[in-house]
């Protein structure tokens, strides 16, 4: 029996030794693999791995530091407001201007959806966004209508500007403007109309064609107005401005020009406030010439110019 006990202990001891040896072999093997891997990596790669590991290790520390900085800023703001009695906060706010809403209606006609490419529909969407934001900031905001909304334009608005459903101070309809506003109130603004708009009638609803087509459908808004038998007119652009490009303006430019005219009371000021520089707009004086041409005429008729002096000497 004693011999059996001794044999059992010896066997257990041998197994433990074998287990330790296997464990040691695994550690040695793992270290060898790691050493081999390190040998295959370049010095730059090893540094990169070390840097990445350090970044992971310091994640919690960075989070804690950000939290402390945020709490410190909040405490500083609170103390600063208490010291100044809230005056600093008031100074940062933009002074609110006196706003007087207008009864004039501006309607963007979105019934040309099927005539535009997807990229042009996207441009129209941005122009409408600009109209909305400018009207919200205007001194005399108009009654803004968006009609015949559907198709590609509505899809673009749903995908890229989901907040449009919460827009304020705007009437958005899927119906045609003819079903929303009385026919006798409508005036279609189109550059092809022979009628020139001298003054705004605040009892009217001025329609702007919601079309971006790069002149592929020239005169279509004018034809639509005639088909529907509604009044039409063009802005008095030629009376005040000469441009080196076509007179067709973007939807938001027409919209903003009207807002600017209502605020400044001058078509010329409104045009030069809104028109982009690329249009090359030049002011027109009363006789139909530009200021530059007038200056050249005055220069030619000046008796003190060298040419005039030379002619006088010859006579």
TrEMBL record:
EC main group: transferase
Q: Where is the active site?
A: 213 (proton acceptor)
Which superkingdom is the protein from?
Eukaryota
Which controlled-vocabulary keywords does the entry list? Answer: Methyltransferase, S-adenosyl-L-methionine, Transferase
**InterPro entries attached to this UniProt entry:** MT_TRM10-typ, MT_TRM10-typ_sf, TRM10/TRM10A, tRNA_m1G_MeTrfase_euk
Where are the coiled-coil regions? Answer: none
Which PANTHER family does the record cross-reference, listed alphabetically?
TRNA (GUANINE-9-) METHYLTRANSFERASE, TRNA METHYLTRANSFERASE 10 HOMOLOG A
**What is the protein's name according to its record?**
tRNA methyltransferase 10 homolog A
**Species this protein is from:** Cottoperca gobio
């Amino acid at each position: 029996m004693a011999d059996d006990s001794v044999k059992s202990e010896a066997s257990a001891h041998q197994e433990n030794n074998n287990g330790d040896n296997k464990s040691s072999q695994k550690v040695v093997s793992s270290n060898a693999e790691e050493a081999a891997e390190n040998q295959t990596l370049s010095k730059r790669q090893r540094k990169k791995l070390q840097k990445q590991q350090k970044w992971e290790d310091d994640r919690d520390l960075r989070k804690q530091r950000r939290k402390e900085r945020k709490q410190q800023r909040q405490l500083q703001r609170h103390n600063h407001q208490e010291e100044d009695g809230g005056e600093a906060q008031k100074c940062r706010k933009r002074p609110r201007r006196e706003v007087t809403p207008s009864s004039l209606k501006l309607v963007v006609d979105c019934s040309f959806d099927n005539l535009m490419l997807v990229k042009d529909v996207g441009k129209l969407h941005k122009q409408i966004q600009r109209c909305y934001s400018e009207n919200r900031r205007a001194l005399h905001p108009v009654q803004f209508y968006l009609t015949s909304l559907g198709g590609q334009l509505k899809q673009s608005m749903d995908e890229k500007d989901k907040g449009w459903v919460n827009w304020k101070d705007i009437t958005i309809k899927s119906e045609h403007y003819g079903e929303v506003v009385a026919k006798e109130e409508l005036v279609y603004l189109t550059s092809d109309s022979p009628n020139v708009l001298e003054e705004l009638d605040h009892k009217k609803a001025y329609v702007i064609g919601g079309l971006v087509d790069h002149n592929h459908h020239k005169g279509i808004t004018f034809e639509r107005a005639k088909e529907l038998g509604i009044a039409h007119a063009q802005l008095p652009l030629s009376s005040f401005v000469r441009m080196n490009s076509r007179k067709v303006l973007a939807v938001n430019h027409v919209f903003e020009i009207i807002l600017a005219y209502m605020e400044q009371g001058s078509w010329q000021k409104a045009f030069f406030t809104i028109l982009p520089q690329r249009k090359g707009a030049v002011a027109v004086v009363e006789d139909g010439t530009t200021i530059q041409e007038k200056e050249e005429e005055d220069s030619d008729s000046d008796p003190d110019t060298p040419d005039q002096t030379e002619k006088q000497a010859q006579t």
